[in-house]
Amino acid sequence: MTAEIAVMNREAIALASDSAVTMMGEADQKIFTSANKLFALSKYHPVGIMVYGSATLMAVPWETIIKTYRNGVGRKRYDTLEEHADAFIQFLDNGNPLFPDYVQEDYVRSTIYSYLDFIKKAIKEKVHSVIDKKGSIAEEMTKQIISETITGQYEDWERAENIPSIPKNYNRNIANKYGDIIDKAIEEIFEKVPLSKGQLKELRKIAGSLFSKFPENIERENTSGAVIAGFGYKDTFPSLEAFDIEGIANNRLKYNQYTSARIDFETSASIIPFARGEMVATFMEGVDPTYRDVEESYLSEVFRRYAEIILENIKGGNHRQNRKLKEKLTTMGTGILEDLKKKLEAHRNEIYTSPITRVVSMLPKDELAVMAETLVSLTSFKLKVTMESETVGGPIDVAVISKGDGFIWIKRKHYFQSELNPQFFATYYEEELNE
After folding, report:
1. Residues 6+ positions from 310 with CB-CB distance below 8 Å
2. Residues 224, 243: contact at Cβ < 8 Å?
């Protein structure tokens, strides 16, 4: 996990990122606090990129990917920030030599095995739950649990649409190209599980969908986030595009646009957190988002239950009258609750969010950088003084991107001493020096 933030107004955009990265082993994890997550996406144009989540894409470090792209794109100019983002995505999406076929095949294999194992574990947990309660389980009940679990997963994936960049016949192509891997995975993972022909077909379709869809209610591990921010050549104000990126199979990138934001003549400022954003939300809205969720959930339960409590204490009335009264009270309660939520949201906006946004719209470039760094520091400090793992920490890298000055480092860590490595800086600017 990490903490990153973008703070922008009409003059510039400040990006800040911590340096913590969690490396997962077979049975444990290790946190390092020296990772680079913020980079210039171009040596010549005002565009930067932050990455979070998985530190690699299919075992290739994001730093390697980004710097390879940067060297290849050179001085090429794009009119808008959106075109910069599209160019980077296309760099990954069109048979990139960084990800040869055998690497893609390994990714497909590990993804399929991992997800099918997840389904099997869900089945086992349900079976063991019944055994714990009843002491045993009938064969028919086991078959029912298997059917419900697999079909439920299948329906979740079927409801989800292919991401826009994936062609219609892609799932079928995946099933054909990697069919042997899919069948072998099903056979090895479900070796002792009685599966019908229909369930085998559903598992194969699930496996084919793993590389083309992002179902809303299914979280996936090893997903990276990429935030591309700055200015295109014709952009007057800054903007950003953020993506969820998972992997490459059959030379197609599985990615989804997470969010986008831009400054224009109507929107004068924006503060956008990525990954761990609860402290930013608390700062901006005056209430911790987890506390707010608990409060709203409890109030919803109160308004649902109060109609039943009233009816339980009213004497008289037939069943039909009581049902109508309950429906009326429930409808009234729902309306009151929605009105309460709107008033609280308006209060938070008036007292907290709007005043901060107004000030941010006027901040000079150096103050934008200070604000971005401070908001990342808040998250790091909270984890330091609680019992949570310190998955946010280390030096904070900060950069400011403006139309006139380009990408400017405000704070940047190096793993080496700059005075001992003049060749690094000479190589970085080699093209300019040779012109």
Report:
1. 325, 329
2. no
| Alpha-carbon torsion, ordered 350, 351, 357, 361, to 10 deg | 90
* 281-337 pLDDT per residue, tens: 999 999 999 999 999 888 888 887 887 777 777 766 677 777 788 888 888 888 888
Contacts of 241 (CB under 8 A, 6+ apart): 81, 82, 85, 227, 228, 229, 257, 260
Between vectors from CA 32 to CA 29 and to CA 37, what angle results, nearest 5°?
115
Q: CA 10 to CA 214: how far, in whole Å?
A: 34
Calpha distance 47→408 (Å, rounded):
10
Q: Distance (Å, rounded) from C-alpha 158 to C-alpha 156?
A: 6
- What are the phi and psi torsion angles at 256 (to 5°)? -145, 135
**Residue matched to tokens 């209060």:** 347
Angle at 226 between CA 379 and CA 258, to 5 degrees: 90
Q: What tens digit of pLDDT does each residue of 323-357 get?
A: 788 888 888 888 888 999 999 999 999 999 999 99
Q: If you write DSSP's letter for every residue of 217-260 in order, what string do you get?
A: T---SS-EEEEEEE--TT-SS-EEEEEEEEEEETTEEEEEEEEE
Please, what is the Cα angle at 242 between 240 and 243, to 5 degrees? 155
Tell which residue, 25, 21, 22, has the closest CA to residue 36: 21
Residue 431 has pLDDT above 60, yes or no: no
Buried b (16+ CB within 10 A) or exposed e, 44-64: bbbbbbbbbbbbbbbeeebee
CA angle 117, 121, 126 (to 5 degrees): 150
Pairing of strands 252-262, 60-61: unpaired
Chain-centroid distance, C-alpha 381: 22
Evaluate whether 299 touches 337 at the Cβ level (below 8 Å).
yes
Query: What is the average pLDDT across 266-274?
Result: 95
d(CA 203, CA 197) in angstroms, rounded, equals 10
Q: What is the largest CA-CA distance in the chain?
A: 95
Which of 428, 400, 295, 423 lies closest to 16, judged by CA? 400
Contacts of 13 (CB under 8 A, 6+ apart): 6, 7, 229, 230, 238, 240, 368, 400, 401, 402
Give, for 171, the enclosing helix (H) or strand (E): helix 170-177
Q: How many residues in total does the chain contain?
A: 435
